[in-house]
Design goal:
homotetramer, globular, 273 residues, Cytochrome p450-Terp, domain 2
């Protein structure tokens, strides 16, 4: 191995996050034995991602958001996949990984998308937040947008998670923990959407999730990252239930699949019988 | 779809864990809006896996164990894989999934294996725990075992996580939260190992992790499951760092790989030039 | 980086398989430009795994086995998962990976298990193959075995893939390409099973797959590996169909999941409303 | 389950690709027993993706492209990840999946990106292909583009795979199998790039790969899909080598990671010792 390669490898792997030496492990400067038993899992997540421990009230808000995101039931594809995968004879870690792997742009990405939109509205021209929201939505629908991520829900006429998270932002705002500007913004968006559509289009869990993470100053990509950490718990629970119930590999999908092939008469194969 | 298929599918997907109806989500009977802001993430994980909320002191012990498991640095293959995968242009969820997928029997499975051993020792013949431990280890080494999972460490002469977790079990035992039998057992194993080898072979984090989960009454496979949830946070942190630093796809592996092929002169290919 | 670490890394990454230098790529000693256009994909797979190119007739047999394994329809969980994953907004590679990840012991592992059994029977005491088969099955059922992997099928009274693969082994045996001992063995197993059960229990595709790979001298773990390579093509096709059809993330799983939670009245939460 | 749900599920799962009934499996209308032993794996892949069997000369071109893509050595992250994952105690299928999961936009996506560009140039205004190429590149560099995917290589001054694939397109063009327009186009791009940069910037394997798939009429996303199928073979080979060599979980990454944390003195923790 050349010296250049050696230096390149050494440089590629350097990290700010964790230091491991004999008898000594530090997360972002904190000795691990001081963290264990003294800070919560959610505070540790914050420390790793942000480089510093949060205020306990900030942590409580993040914790609430993660509790809200743990599970959305087996009709959520990530849960369905975890429940199916474990019956195929893989490890629990593989079943969880399979579910997480499906938390893509359309499934686990809504929080991140809403958050990017909130930051975009914040940074758009103008001084009045309501006017900025109205302009943004005007443009969204003019450009052919139909469903605004973060608002409305297939199942829920009112999303109980969203209401509760917005309440918690309000409490934290009253406490001076956050400024409350994003809670105001998503409510303004809800009002404007409802006015436009002529029916109630309430904030959903993705909208409230994004508002909390924006209030707490997270970068938008972390909205997906933190959602993944929370949802992993739901995936584990479904995989374990599937395993404990002794579910069989066959069954989750109908076995009388409709075959729609309507092509040509197939070509005669030279060697076919 | 036949009625039989319909019933089979319906039965396959039933769940005890989560109920989702219009405006109403329940985890194990609890309305989600009552959980959000009132219970911690770790308490929610316990609820999903065990069917009931834990006592706060039980939760504190589980939380400590998860904090201890979040990160083991980039020389841990799961972290390394997450840090590499994100540079390949996949989503954060895919990078985390890739890391979790590697938490197999040899990497993330040690806690589960130690826990299975602790339960085996507990259930073995005899009344004196120290005698049971001695018999078990006698047999382990007679059958050719070399390294007992859960004891000793490649890097750490004393593992700071293990000591701290055992202390927390002691405190919880004094508080009547747990019985402390598994903390005693791993200490007895440490003493017996040290006696046999003639040098100190201390409990490591896997051993202490297993002891906590056994004290708390978890089933052994959940030792891996819970480890995965904790480690997911470390994987996210490394993936985000790798992305933020703008690391390139090439670099983590030496580019002057040693080629050891020493076969035959290759066969002449008919069409080769 | 210490010299020891450097040497360790260098040693860890050495490989017999591929050599890459400026303007020069060799697979197992063969220049890539001589392989491209002159050997088939299946011959290249053989070269990479075995270290030498196969005889074209050997390659034809492996190719037939892989064609037989490409697809088993969407009620096969790996296909179902790939079709679901792509609707979640991940890349085609992630959707294929999710499907492959589910090809575990119970799903993609049957070929490997049958192959291990064939080698076990071959190596068992005795000179007469039929007697060895009878003894093995006697023991299998005595020990509580119920369904012998590789024989019988949930859907197919006769598996068209198995019959065709056994015919191809017969042709290759007549040609002197293989010895035909494993085709004989699986047929003897089929006969013995049928005699015992009093109804026809034919070889299925896993049984025939294992017989071909044993005839060709592959190690048993490669039975799963090669199956994965073949099935990957089916997974791609289903993921692409799902994407092209514009399938929605919701839909594959019933949305009226049965909730079976019947626990206690939940504990009153301190902060609950 | 409501009738509506039942119909929705039934509709979600319908497929054109494979029909499975008792004793009868059809891929795109062809009985599987007619395909096995009569068509190659690559022809079967084509059938599944395109709905019809290819001409053998078309298949040969696709086959050559897949042989060229099987392996790029362990400094390719997908290979590295597969080799690392198997040492963690997961199944071969999980190790392959982990590697494929990393074939994202930056790693496995180059072929698809080049192909999209080729189709864009083809459809741009103008009648003279060379002029269209010149205009496109002009714009690419004006907009700040630096490295044109599909051209130039970190290791190879001339990429032996690219030259060989272009030759095979030439032969197929002479045979009337393809029209050769994309081979012309990538050569025109190479010439224009070289003229602009004042040094040779040859077509690389991604460029030639894209040209072949465009000649054969594949949709651009399939460029990644087919690359994944080919590369899966290389991943299997590396995972098996890693397993056979008995490589340890520790070792691929330096164990003396540089810790760059330079933050504040950490905050005193209330409960810390």
């Amino acid at each position: 191995m050349s010296n250049e390669t050696r230096e390149h490898i050494r440089d590629w792997w350097r990290t700010d996050i964790v230091n491991v030496e004999d008898g000594n492990i530090r997360y972002r400067g904190y000795a691990i034995e001081d963290l264990i038993g003294n800070v919560s899992l959610v505070e540790t997540i914050w420390l790793l991602l942000r480089g510093e421990l949060p205020d306990p009230k900030q942590a409580r808000l993040l914790e609430a958001t993660m509790v809200a995101s743990v599970n959305a039931g087996p009709m959520s594809p990530s849960c369905a996949i975890a429940a199916m995968a474990i019956t195929c004879g893989v490890g629990l870690n593989n079943a969880i990984a399979s579910g997480i792997n499906a938390l893509g742009d359309t499934h686990g990405g809504a929080g991140q998308q809403v958050m990017e939109r909130l930051l975009l509205i914040r940074d758009s021209d103008g001084t009045d937040m309501h006017a900025k929201v109205a302009t943004h939505l005007e443009q969204f629908f003019e450009e052919g947008g139909r469903f605004l991520p973060g608002f409305g829900h297939r199942f829920h006429s009112v999303d109980p998670r969203a209401q509760r998270l917005l309440e918690l932002i309000d409490e934290a705002t009253a406490d001076g923990v956050v400024q409350g500007e994003y809670a105001k913004m998503v409510r303004a968006m809800e009002a404007e959407l409802t006015r436009r559509k002529g029916r109630n289009i309430p904030v959903n869990v993705d909208g409230a999730f994004a508002a909390v993470l924006a209030e707490l100053g997270f970068a938008a990509p972390l909205a997906r990252g933190i959602f993944v950490l929370a949802r992993a718990a739901g995936l584990l629970a479904h995989a374990v239930e599937s395993q404990t119930e002794g579910r069989r590999i066959k069954g989750p999908v109908p076995d009388d699949i409709m075959y729609t092939y309507s092509g040509h008469a197939p070509r005669a194969l030279p060697g076919a019988q």
